[in-house]
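Reopening: ATP synthase CF0 subunit II still failing for me.
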Amino acid sequence: MINIPLFLALQASSTEVEGGLFDFNATLPLMALQFLALTVLLNIIFYKPVSNILDERDEYIRNSLTTASASLLKANELTKKYEHELAESRKKAQNIIKVSQQEAQQIVAVKVKEAQKDTETLISEALNKLNVQKEHALKALENQVDVLSEQIKIKLLGNQSSI
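Support: Ran it again with your exact input. Result attached.
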């Protein structure tokens, strides 16, 4: 009697010998063709569109960077230009202020001289009026002194004739 498990083991070992993990028959070239076809198909369907999108994005980024750097250079130039114009405007304003102050000082000096001349004129006129009034007062006093001295003389002479 033959043992059934031994028979099955012999049959299993004979079938394993024919095929294995690396069986080189007609399926290997088919697998290679299938791999190449899938690679070409994936290249056309996925890789090229993704590559195009990445290239467009890279070009967009490059263009944006060039535009940004050009704008930055232009902004820097405008900043320098406006700073220069601002500095010139400040210098002009300072010069205008300085000239205005000098003109104001000259005007004040002229006005002060005119005021001094006017006060000197007023003082001299007042002195002249006072001198004229003094002379009139002295003449009036001289006349009064003459009149009083005549009256005193008359009284004295009149009193001596009675004595």
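The chain has a mean pLDDT of 86. If you still see a failure, please send the error message rather than a screenshot.
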